[in-house]
Amino acid sequence: MTDVCPCGSVAAYAACCGRWHAGAAASSAAELMRSRYSAFVLGFEDYLLATWHPSTRPPVLQLDRSVKWLGLDVRRQHADGDTATVEFVARSKQAGRATRLHETSRFVREGGRWYYVDGEIA
């Protein structure tokens, strides 16, 4: 594993997203979103499925390993009780072509854990 957290935090992976990947519950939707980005970078499909709300979770997930994730910018976050939104831009490169995913994601907290519900791509 890498010493630097892929989510762009100044913290080391173990002190940042690594703890969520190891099973701790993220304390905010923004933390969960960052950990999910890191899971995409690191290829942790099981983690992505486990943190996806059952009402919208796909039955399987197969990440495209040819995508190279380049960075994450969290633009805005808003929490209201057990629901939250996080707007972000994730940059990637595939087959020499740079792309950006600009999404406002919806999250819900159930049983003390945050889950990704869905997102609106800008």
Using only C-alpha atoms, the radius of gyration works out to 14 Å
Please bin the fraction of helical residues: 10-25%
CATH architectural category: Roll
Structural class: alpha+beta
What's the total count of β strands?
A: 4
**How much of the polypeptide forms β-strand, as a percent range?**
35-45%
Distance between the termini: 32 Å
CATH topology title: Nuclear Transport Factor 2, Chain: A
Could you give a short description of this structure?
This protein has 122 residues and is an alpha+beta fold. It has helices at 17-21, 29-42, 45-50, and strands spanning 68-80, 83-94, 97-110, 113-121.
Keywords:
alpha+beta, Nuclear Transport Factor 2, Chain: A, globular, 122 residues, 39% strand, four-stranded antiparallel beta sheet
Write the SSE topology.
Blueprint: H1 17-21, H2 29-42, H3 45-50, E1 68-80, E2 83-94, E3 97-110, E4 113-121
Antiparallel strand pairs: 1-2, 2-3, 3-4
Describe the structure in your own words:
The protein is of the alpha+beta class. The protein has one domain: Roll (Nuclear Transport Factor 2, Chain: A). The protein is built from 3 helices and 4 strands, in the order αααββββ. The chain has a 4-stranded antiparallel sheet, covered by helices on one side. A hairpin with a 2-residue loop joins strand 3 (97-110) and strand 4 (113-121). The mean pLDDT is 95.
